[in-house]
Sequence to fold (628 residues):
Amino acid sequence: MRFSVRKLSTRRRHRFAGALVLLLGLVVAGGAYAVVAPQPATAEQATARDVEAGRQLFEIGCASCHGLNAEGIVTQSGGNYGPSLIGVGAAAVDFQVGTGRMPMAQTAPQAPRKKVAYNDEEIKQLAAFVASLAPGPAIPGNEYTDIDAATEDDVREGGEIFRTNCTACHNAVGAGGAMPNGKYAPDIRDVEPIHIAEAMITGPQQMPGFSDEAMTPEEKRNVIAYIKSTNSQPGAGLGGGSLGPVVDGVFAWVIGMGALVLAAVWIGAHGTRVKKR
Amino acid sequence: MSDLDIRQTQGSNEPIPDPGLQEHQYRPQDVDESQARRTERQISAMFLIAAVLFIAFAVVYFAVEPEETIFGWSAQNTGFGFTLGGAMLLIGVGIIQWAKKLMGDHEIVEMRHSAASSAEDRTEALAVINTGVEESGIGRRPMIVRSLGLALGALGVPAVVMLRDLGPLPYGHTETVWKKGMRVVVDVTGRPIKPSDMRVGDLINAEPSVFFETDEDGNRVFHGTELMQAKAKAAVIVVRMRPEAITPKKGRENWGVDGILAYSKICTHVGCPISLWEQQTHHLLCPCHQSTFDLADNGKVVFGPAARPLPQLPLAVDSEGYLIATSDFPEIVAPSYPRLAHDQKKLDEQA
Fold:
């Protein structure tokens, strides 16, 4: 098929182009109004609008692994491509997305903590959508995270609970530790109290959950207060999760001893001499 | 003829003559008395500063609070390090300066000589030993020597008995405090557990309720060393899995409650407490030697040096709806030891 230059020129503007420009203008104006317009007062409760916005975000960012209706995707071999999110609740979304673990960048033994991909509003919307699917744990309130209100006795009790339930994987001061097959218990020393509470409630990835019936919100708060209190104490040695001066010790032995030997040789080889008698 | 002798006789025939010692080179302190005095003052100053630092150590000890920090380290420990380390360093540097700059440093030749004592000394020493042997009668009275040997050998008997007494052997300790109807309660808080308190994937580190009970006088039934020893055998972990994920052995079908199972927390390898629970793989990992147990499959060992499955505690629900044990562990809770199979057989016969 051949086109002359003239023919192309006349067809350059589609007959619907005008309508399209009008539509685009309307969308832009409407969008700009939505940004500028005063926001309706939002209650703490998620609105239907949040759920709908969350659903749209979910379809774009999450559905490829978790399924269009968050029902999960099972691989041909019976494995788990992305688990079902029905009933995981808002707390799980706030933890996984709020710490950057979700969306995952690639398949891995474990979803690592990384840069958070969504803003607070979007996380709230995603959480509202997932929470709307089935009842599940809500985002924990102040009773879990108000660590300033914990007394010394509370912190002591939190320490006992922490050492019984958490240190096996997370180390005595929460520095984390290795697990089989490339997995690991993460360092929890600098994690936000709300995310620690959410992890205890929901049991993300391989971590077991600790229900509010077996470990009350107040006990969870005490555990968090304990973790934060140990972090304010001076550590023993550089790194190593307060296990002791292991790293420093290696340096002292290898670098320090070597330097001493070299210094001794240097001392033996040097000394000021004069020519005159 | 030794190597030394050969070299000595050949000395004058060396292809290159022995150049002898280099001419001695003097130090500034050797030729200039004012330099020497200056060095002396420097060294004395180091020793004096060291003395001050030792006293500063005591000041830090009493004046600095243990809670204070500096650069994120304990201020007290840092102070100790700087004062004590600094003083030791100054003493060391001072001694080296003294030796290198002031002490005599003329080259001295020390000739080799034989390391052996003189023939006279050696004869005398041998004579002393021979006299001793002769007079003690070791050669003539064998009975006394042999009986002494026996006595010294018998010294091993008390040693063995004492070593044997260092601690109780695991043999025969086949029971724990768990018994039929005893409630399974949350460790630390002592709260009883309802099956509805646990969701799939949850973990509870639990203990027998008897550890939280008091007698009529208000004293704990178990306390002190006794509590620690009983706890070391009775601690359990309670986990909830999907019931369809669990493949119970024959006879264990009703040991769980809606997917809730309880296992001993004591590794069957060398007895470390284990609670590293991977809720999705159903694997329980021991941090000491990486023994891994599949709790969905009767505590089977799936990795590591442990040689027998983790003992399981049979569970049920009492009339008030709380989790209870239906018996003690049917298997021995302990690190593995040589006669374990024998003890297990006896335990099975009792049951």
